[in-house]
Design brief:
alpha+beta
């Protein structure tokens, strides 16, 4: 299992961060750079949960997962793998969003995934050794896109 934790500070309010993480509109792939439009499918959307297929394409590799998103706990969004070609069911990511400085937010990310297959194992080793930098960079890009759209 590969587990990394890190914090991200953003000028976005906690409510705006939760809104970005739980935006399952057709705009989601525009906001989050790791989601390829052809691999995005909302299967169920409730008031505090969603089942969504998401994925990305990289050279020599397409990865996807059906995730169950839950935001029933205020200030926390957790997504858990139901089915995937790169990590085991039960693998998860959790974002705890709290107030930050000057009206912004501090987000604590816990990335907890178990790889499936050789390519995923190699990718997860790099993520683990880097302290989660690729995952953090993807989060930051999405948050930056939200900031840009707010302007």
């Amino acid at each position: 299992m590969a587990r990394v934790e890190f914090d991200i500070d953003t000028p976005l309010s906690p409510e705006r961060v939760v809104s970005a993480l739980t935006n399952f509109s057709e705009r989601r792939p525009e906001i989050w750079p790791g989601i390829h439009p052809s691999l995005y499918e909302v299967r169920h959307l409730g008031t505090t949960s969603a089942d969504v297929k998401e994925g990305t394409k990289a050279p020599g590799m397409t990865v996807w997962a059906v995730e169950h998103y839950d935001w029933s706990v205020p200030g926390t969004v957790t997504w858990t793998v139901q089915e995937s070609n790169f990590c085991t069911p039960g693998s998860s990511v959790s974002a705890r969003i709290g107030p930050g400085m000057e009206g912004g937010s501090r987000i604590h990310i816990t990335w907890n995934r178990t790889p499936v297959g050789f390519k995923a194992r190699m990718m997860f080793v790099l993520i683990k050794l880097s302290g989660g930098k690729p995952v953090e960079a993807s989060f930051r890009q999405g948050l930056d896109r939200m900031l840009e759209s707010d302007r």
